Amino acid sequence: MSLTKEVTADKIEVITTQDEDGNDVTSVQVRTATKVLEDGAVISQSYHRHVIQSGDDWSSEPSNVQAICNAVFGA
After folding, report:
1. CA distances for 39 relative to 2, 3, 29, 35, angstroms
2. Which of 6, 45, 54, 73 is deepest in the core (most CB within 10 A)?
3. Structure pTM?
């Protein structure tokens, strides 16, 4: 029996909403999936979401999330 844990940013969405003054605000939403596998079969799975906005530090995010943040907010 071999247990392993995988953590991946499995969904990345770019959304634009309006603030109270009617200005467009762009955010990147990231869903992180945590899977526990036994001999390659998923036995547990959970999700966590967080939002990244312009001015936030995304340097600790996975490379795919960083690339999207760089494209949306500028490097």
Report:
1. 5, 6, 31, 12
2. 73
3. 0.83
